[in-house]
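Lecture 7, part 2: worked example. A protein chain together with aspartic acid.
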Amino acid sequence: MSAVAARVPAIVAHGGAGAHPTEGRDELRRGMQAAVAAGFAVLSAGGRALDAVEATVRVLEDHPRFNAGRGSVLTSDGTIEMDASIMEGDRLECGAVASVRCIANPVTLARRVLESGRHVLLVGEGAQAFARTVGVPECDPASLITEAQRKRSEALHRATPGTVGAVALDRHGTVAAATSTGGMWGKLPGRVGDSALIGAGTYADSTLGAVSCTGDGEATIRVVLARRALDYLKEADDPGYAAKVAVDLLVDEGRGGGGLILLDWRGRVGWSHSTPLMPVAWMSPAHEAPELAF
Ligand code: ASP
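Predicted complex, written out as C-alpha cells:
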C-alpha cells in the first residue's frame, strides 16, 4: 500500500476512440454506465482498484457493442484474436495476453498472468494452454463473433469501434489500469497491438496514476503512450494537460490517432482523443450515478 491517508476512490472507463460519432449513442451510454457502476461497486465496498478495473472491463467485454470479448472485430481471415492487459501500481505488477481466440473475458486471463508472477505476456496457443491450467473457461470462438461485426467485415467498413479500458484509484491509494480489445479491423492474423503491451496501451504507478489507451496500436506502441502520459503528468501535475500532450505526441510522432484516459494518484481525471468520439464515463462518491462525457 502506498498511501498513509485513505483516499477517495474513483473509476474512469473508455469505450474506444474509434466509436462511430452518431450511431447507437444510447446503447453506448447504457453500456458505459453499467460498466463504471460495476467497478465503482467494488471500490465503494472497500475493494481493490485491480478488482474494480477488471470488473468494469468484463462488463464491456460481455457487451456486444464494444470491440473486446464478444463483439471483437475480425481479422483479415475472418477470425477473432484478442489482446488485453492489466496492471496494479504499487509494485508494478502486470499481466497480459495477446492473440487469444477462445476466451470470453481476456482481461481475466491477463489478471491470472499477473497473479502467476512468473511472466508478463502470454500469446496464442500458450495463453490458451495457461487458461486451462488456471481454470479460465474457454469458449467457442464463433460465440464471440456478432452479426454486426460480420456485416461490417462484409461491407469493408474500416472504422474500429470500441476497444475498452478502465483506470481506478482505491481507498488504499493504489491505482490500477486495464485494457481489452479485438484489435484493428482486418488486421493480419498474429498482429499484436498496444492493448497487450504494458507501457504502450496500459500503465499504472501508484506514485503517479493510471492510464488506458485506445486508437492506432502501431502509433501507440511507437511512442510508448501510456507511460509517456504519466511522464507528462509528473512534469505538469495536471491530468487533463498530460492527457492532451500525450495525444499530441501520438498524432505528431506516432503518426496515428486515438485517445486515452488518465486518473492521477489523487483521483483527478484527465482524458483526450484526436478522433471524433471516445466514450468516457466515471464515478466517485461525489456522484450518485455514473457521469458521462459523450
Ligand atoms: N489500440 C487497439 C489496437 O491497436 C485498437 C483500438 O484501440 O481501437 O489493437
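The pocket of aspartic acid is lined by residues 16, 18, 160, 163, 181, 183-184, 193-195, 214-215, 217, 220 (CB under 6 Å). The longest helix spans residues 25-44. Keep this in mind for problem set question 3.
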